[in-house]
Design goal:
Length: 183
Amino acid sequence: MFQSHKSILKAILFSLLIGVSSSCIHEDIVEGDYPDSVIYLPLANNGILTISAMDESSSPRFTIESNQLTIPIGIYRSGIGRLDEVLVAVDLNLDTLAALSIPNLQVLPQSALEYPNSVQLNRGIALETINLRVNLSAVFQNPEAMYGFAIGISSEQVPTNPALSTLLVLIDPRFLLEDSNMD
């Protein structure tokens, strides 16, 4: 009987040894044709971010505090080649708004926006988040208007996905006048 337990124990230990040693095998990424790395704005997938009501979801697209609207924007780098650091430029793109035909649309003054001019995607990092901040005093100048701006990204090191490189943001300030949680 003791011999039987000893055989079973040896079999279990042998199986564990094989399992552990096979799970530690390092395999390099084999050479092949992989898509190039590109940068993009995931939020631009929806085309236009319209802010016209309070966002009380579990992961809100914006927050409002002390007369400031804050919109977190993710900048994503796809692909296998994330081995280098990439500098991503962040710019206002006012031409995009001019092409829209939205009644009563006004371009938000650049002085009302605060955003970083660039962001560094460090080695191995796929996603960085920046905050766009809007001084809401500017939108209260004419609360009946729709205000808008467009943010675009680019990089000299990595191409952008042209369909997802610009985010349009429209702000309808009428809901803000009704909200008492702004201050």
